[in-house]
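Example record

One chain of 405 residues, shown exactly as stored in the release files.
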Amino acid sequence: MRRIRVTPNRRGAAPAAAIAALLTATLTACSAGAAGPAKSGADDGEGGAGERPQTVTVTPRGSRAEPGEPVTVTAENGALTSVTVTDAEGRELTGRLSKNGRTWTSHRNAAPGTTYRVNAATRTRGGTPASAERTFTTTAAETVNKVDWRPGNHARVGVAQPISLVFDHPVENKAEVEKQLKVTTSNSTKGSWGWLRDWSGKDRVDWRPKKYWKPGTEVTLHARLKGTDSGRRGGWFVRDYKVDFTIGARRVAQVDLDKKQLTLERDGTVLRRVPVSGGTPGGDKRSWRGTAVLLAKEGTIRMNSESVGLGDAYDKLVDYSMRLTWSGMYAHAAPWNAAYFGRANKSSGCIGMSDADARWVYSHVRVGDPFEIRGKDTKGTMAPNNGLGQWNLTWDQWRARSALR
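Predicted structure tokens for this chain:
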């Protein structure tokens, strides 16, 4: 069913009669129904002799108010001196007062399924103080949108790690959602959000710096999504998210498939060069090239070629597995290929090395470290959504994916 929202405080959003009714409605203390005159500090309760009664209007209103709009408090025949809006758990909805003091508007939207209490202190034109109180309740969300994010809270990650948010349901209001996402860093790192379709098929938005992070950077994401409508099919967000993480040392793994060699650097110093064997040239077993961000250190896992569309080429337990893409490319131990390390690319797409070298690399890298892979005979550059492949786009290409460009 299509929803029709009546918003009295927007020009042309409701019939004149509805606007007039709301502008003349006033508040009574602890009332969830129609509002009356604000309580006055004067003995006669009418704001002093000859003064018109002070009235206050609040929107939304009622027991089934529409969520997703700011709370607005308006004073007639005077000015607001303070406004406090809290939910049932005592959390405050902050706001701002207009220059003339007559209107207060919340910074955040009213969230679905929430009861709010509004306390407004006013002063009449003659200087008489008054107060008003009102409650309203928003309707519950039929569909709730949730977020899965990386990196994890309080993580220490590599210099290529982006912030990545994957949504349970489609996000049609991308610009509105992106407005609620704020990244702060300890050194004013420049970066941008970009939207893409996750490998899982879900909507995803990532934030990456213009260049690799500086080691030691402290990063905080504030996702102030509560009360944001993600669109017709996606539903509402009903909570906020906050994530803190820190950038570790600058470690870069350079993988040259032409030389069949992996070089691991830390802060510009070569730690070790390791002979490897990449994907077999000339077909589907070739490796991807480009910058891959280490997604996870998965240890010993079972690898089955049928899961990546290569028939029954292999089915085995693999040690020191470091995941580079969602499509199944890893760096790992491959002792069965020992004859080819440093000599030929003979794997099914992964970066294989000896047990000893894989153990060493595994112990010296962390999630978020970049693997910069190059080679002539590859399947091409990995897509931005195949793992964390944002670095394979230019800065301008990445910024163009923002919904706020």
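Notes: DSSP finds four helices and 25 strands in the chain.
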